[in-house]
Amino acid sequence: MLRDTEVAAVLPAKDMNRAKDFYRDKLGLEPMEPGDDNLMFQCGNGTRFLLYQTDNAGTARNTQMGWVTDDVERDVQDLRSRGVVFEEYDFPGLKTENGIATSDAGKAAWFLDSEGNILSLFERP
Fold this sequence. Notes:
There is one protein chain. The protein has 2 helices and 9 strands; from the N terminus they run βαβββαβββββ. With 125 residues, the protein is of the alpha+beta class. It has a single domain, classed as 2,3-Dihydroxybiphenyl 1,2-Dioxygenase, domain 1 (Roll), CATH 3.10.180. Strands 4-9-8-7-6-5 form a 6-stranded mixed beta sheet. A 3-stranded mixed beta sheet has the order 1-3-2. It is globular. It starts with 7 loop residues before the first strand and ends with a strand. Pfam families: Glyoxalase (PF00903). InterPro entries: Glyas_Bleomycin-R_OHBP_Dase, Glyas_Fos-R_dOase_dom, VOC_core.
């Protein structure tokens, strides 16, 4: 049943106005409908994600959502030009260089949104 059902990510936001500004100004996304309590955004192929108000925002220490891209370097450069700051990691099995990790699985880059949520870009080989 679920394999044929659309999936939508859900992200927490402590400050909805700040989050809306970040997603609009830094990522170039507009909410599907105006709202104060929740904001729904649509991305490629009909995928969506919801931002909702909670004081728990920014407490997860794992990647919460990611975009699949055909060119991580291009997208990192574009987002940096908008003020997005990419994380640098150096863990066993994961090391970024200039914000991008490369492995047999592909290339990936991570950044924080205005609410402390960890987001990613991923390029398959």
